[in-house]
Amino acid sequence: MSGNVIVLISGAGPVGMTLANELTRYGISVRIVDKAAERTDKSKALVLWSRTLELFDHAGYVDDFMSAGMQAHGANISNGKEVMARIDFDDIDSVYRYALMIPQSETERILEEHLAKRGVTVERNVALESFVDQGAQVQAVLRKTTGEAETLTADWLIGCDGAHSAVRHGLGFTFDGTTQPSDWLLADGHFTGLDPQDRLHIFWHKDGILAFFPITEGRWRVVADLGVAEGSSHRADPSLEEIQSVLTERGSGKIVIKDAYWLAAFRINERKVSQYNRGRAFLAGDAAHIHSPAGGQGMNTGMQDAFNLAWKLSLVIGGVCKPSLLDSYSVERSAVGDEVLRNAGRMTEVAILRNPIAQGLRNAAVKFAFGFPQLSHAAAKTLSELDIGYPDSPLSVKGAHHPTGIKGDKTKPGKRWPDRLPADTSRARFTAIGPADGVTGLAAKFPKLVQAAPTTGKVDGQNLILVRPDGYVGFAGTAVDGAGAEAYLATLAAR
Predict the structure, then answer these.
(1) Rounded Cα distance, 80 and 88, in Å
(2) Residue 103 region, left (φ>0) first, then alpha (ψ -120 to 50), else beta?
(3) Please, which residues have CB within 8 angstroms of residue 372's CB and are 6 or more apart in sequence?
(4) How far from the centroid of its chain's Cα atoms is residue 189's Cα?
(5) What's the 3-state SS for the chain?
(6) Spatial contact of 359 and 204, defined as CB atoms under 8 Å apart
(7) Of 23 and 181, more confident
(8) Dist CA 183 CA 234 (whole Å)
(9) How far apart are the first and last CA of the chain?
(10) β-pair partners for 210
(11) Which residues contact residue 109 at a Cβ distance below 8 angstroms, ignoring those fewer than 6 apart?
């Protein structure tokens, strides 16, 4: 039996490596294993949305993603003859007013390189075989592809090991949901006849959807649905000729595929667990939720699972917060998973309508509705995941007085805080925003949990806001609510 590990992460995809990077950034030692021999060479999940980019920005390593990706500034929905709807990302409330198109192979490369800089090596050809939660620790068995086994103890086990998660199976959690009885085609390659290059192009044809996602200039991902599948067997991967036939039939008439890096057929699964943890074992990413690729939310949702869990786990491991803080992880992220599942499912249902009358009504309704800029803005906000929040979380608390003088509802508990937080990212701490005497007093009473960000002026100087380490409002009140803010922190603090 080998020595004790603080956190064992099963699965070294984008979610597992995001979690490993965040924990090591906070000074928590990890081991991360993956049964695959190497990271993926496919484009797979290929978009980082605004909210995820903001989180990587705060973590301090967003620039490497930016240099490896391509900005997409909107999406066009067309019937092949005219554009019925335009969604623009340029006016969303973020520094990152675009979707960053980046192949998953590049995302994984960047994350693994950052882990290596922090002294962590992904252990490949190593699978989690079994584990037992012993209460104070988890005993796990790892097995290499050579057959060699290793038994170790870990304080915490995190399953980021995908749709067939060994951790989920070990917990005995059911993966409730369905597999859609329809076949889809995918091609990743070079195309001509698509402009502009910095937008997603979606064609609603009578025979099904055809959607294009830019990867690099001239290189695109295309997906198309073929309707109800015949039988239960997996459809053979398409040829270039099959893809071109669909392009000619459903596209603008000018789109041509030149070559392909990847051709595949797939079916859509929509499944989710009802809880994300038990005892010392947690789930994140596809191990907890899988859904339609519509909207490109899957990887981003999983990465945000990792950001949510990392700061909480680091504060509990460091003895700063009570273990009960971890109870909020499943509450918060399961609600988000439900929302993403619903949104992706609805987008898919609308896109694959087959009834001609229903298609006509859909097209007319979308063309009319998107004539109003507010709807385009709302759609962009949903896609970018800027409207994700935790209004019903036990960590979202109102003060006795509502903050004053700030436009909109950005100070509501559970809402994303839209401004950049102080630059010290070496520790997971709440940021106390408000009058100097109040926030410095909170930082003095809870030095390991709070950093002060004094404000001035008639408006901002009258409010007292506690922003969580992941950039969401925890407590919201006014300057006279200091006792309430202190009580809020006291419920979290270990002392």
Answers:
(1) 19
(2) beta
(3) none
(4) 25
(5) CCCEEEEEEECCCHHHHHHHHHHHHCCCCEEEEECCCCCCCCCCCCEECHHHHHHHHHHCCCHHHHHHCEEECEEEEECCCCEEEEEECCCCCCCCCCEEECCHHHHHHHHHHHHHHCCCCCEECEEEEEEEECCCCEEEEEEECCCCEEEEEEEEEEECCCCCCHHHHHHCCCCEEEECCEEEEEEEEEEECCCCCCEEEEEEECCEEEEEEEEECCEEEEEEEEEECCCCCCCCCCCHHHHHHHHHHHCCCCCEEEEEEEEEEECCEEEECCCCEECCEEECHHHCEECCCCCCCHHHHHHHHHHHHHHHHHHHHCCCECHHHHHHHHHHHHHHHHHHHHHHHHHHHHHCCCCHHHHHHHHHHHHHHCCCHHHHHHHHHHHCCCCCCCCCCCCCEECCCCCCCCCCCCCCCCCECCCCCCCCCCCCCEEEEECHHHHHHHHHHCCCCEEEEECCCCCHHHEEEEECCCCEEEEEEEHHHHHHHHHHHHHHECC
(6) yes
(7) 23
(8) 9
(9) 35
(10) 203, 224
(11) 39, 68
Question: Position of tokens 């290929």?
Answer: 46
Amino acid identity for residue 212 in this structure: F
- Contact between 225 and 183 under an 8 Å Cβ cutoff? The reply is yes
pLDDT band at 408 (very low <50, low <70, confident <90, very high): very low
What confidence tens digit (pLDDT) does each residue in 132-157 have? 999 999 999 999 999 999 999 999 99
Q: How far is CA 467 from CA 76, 172, 238, 390, 483, in A?
A: 36, 35, 49, 12, 17
Scanning the structure block, which residue is given the tokens 């000074």? 27
Q: What is the pTM of this model?
A: 0.95
Q: What does the alpha-carbon distance between residue 401 and residue 186 come to, in Å, rounded to a whole number?
A: 53
Polymer length of the chain: 495
Please state, as a whole number, how many other Cβ atoms lie within 10 Å of the Cβ of residue 236. Answer: 9
Q: What structural domains and CATH numbers belong to the chain?
A: 4-42+103-175+273-345 (3.50.50.60), 181-267 (3.30.70.2450), 397-492 (3.40.30)
What are the CB-based long-range contacts (under 8 Å, 24+) for 386-390? 386/50, 386/51, 386/92, 386/93, 386/94, 386/416, 387/416, 388/51, 388/304, 388/336, 388/339, 388/416, 389/414, 389/415, 389/416, 389/472, 390/332, 390/335, 390/336, 390/414, 390/472
The token duo for 19 is 């979690």
Please report the pLDDT score of residue 409 as a whole number: 63
Q: Kindly report the number of other CB atoms within 10 A of residue 146's CB atom.
A: 8
| Cα separation, 294 vs 290, whole angstroms | 12
Place of tokens 């198109």: 101
- What are 82-130's pLDDT values in tens digits? 899 999 999 899 999 999 999 999 999 999 999 999 999 999 999 999 9
